[in-house]
Amino acid sequence: MLSKIFTGDPVPLSFAAYLRIVRASAWYDLIVTAPFFTPWSFAYAHGQLSLLNVRLGGAPLPAFAALHTLFVCMMGGLVLVWSLARLRMPSVALGRHDGAARLLFSLWMMWALTVSSTPLLWLFVVPECAIGVAQFLPVKQALA
Known about the structure:
Elements: H1 2-6, H2 15-33, H3 39-55, H4 66-88, H5 92-115, H6 122-134
Helix pairs in contact: 2-4, 2-5, 5-6
């Protein structure tokens, strides 16, 4: 089994193991995204994230106007609904779509890392990339 990993021939995940990854990614999203769901919870989270960014060596996060907060909360709501869909109906298809979304989100986070003083983003980009890649692992086909 280890020889297959080191030779580049990936070992397919069982269907059940893959669905556990899809569900775990949904729970991760629920926990991480919940503070971005309302303007009030986001205001608190923004302050805490700004403090953390400073502690990590970055600059304080810029203040958000109402329009910025609107887009944050819309995205937070969308991710929460998407998370609930993956918890209720986990599938390989939803996992693959989620993996693609995570890799796109990671791309934009990496862009932001290059143009800003936001080391805080590493706390988001690393799990996003890892979960995104995990959701593209091969899955064993069920025998009919």
